[in-house]
Design goal:
Distance between the termini: 11 Å
Number of helices: 2
Structural class: alpha+beta
CATH class: Alpha Beta
CATH architecture: 2-Layer Sandwich
Organism: Robiginitalea aurantiaca
Number of domains: 1
Protein name: SRPBCC family protein
Oligomer: single chain
Order of helices and strands: EHEEEEEEHE
Shape: globular
CATH topology: Alpha-D-Glucose-1,6-Bisphosphate, Chain A, domain 4
Radius of gyration: 16 Å
Number of strands: 8
CATH superfamily: START domain
Length: 165
Amino acid sequence: MKLYRLHATQTLPISPEDAWNFLSNPENLQKITPAHMGFQILSGADRPMYPGQLIQYKVSPIPGIRTRWVSEITHVEPGSYFVDEQRFGPYSLWHHKHFIKKMDQGVLMEDIVDYKLPLGILGSLAHPIFVRKQLVGIFRHREKALTDLFGSVPGHPTTFDIQTL
């Protein structure tokens, strides 16, 4: 089974505090998730983020198929980074690190997602055909939603890469 890494960066012309307050609030996930995914928080988003927090969602990773996704917040450094890990959901492994770094014109957001697909060889075959495209679409949508909400920093393009580890 292959391990993949998604690496994305985006700059926003906002303070680290504003970035943290938005990104660490699970209720804002729906604002930056494509509508076609039917993202819905079921429980666990009623408190500020803390290690050990479990958040349950319903999401449609494949049109017409809804699944439950349970994430645990495993690490939190307020204003700097947090890590969420899938405990139940569509991936065999999902480990997502979110970093916020102060820069002269605002903040640099960096996401590093390590993930594995289920179904062995079938999952590996589905990656280039479906999964990779879907993840690119989700992160491109997120980039646009954040830019629409907060603006962008001229001269600092968003970067995005998926590689096999």
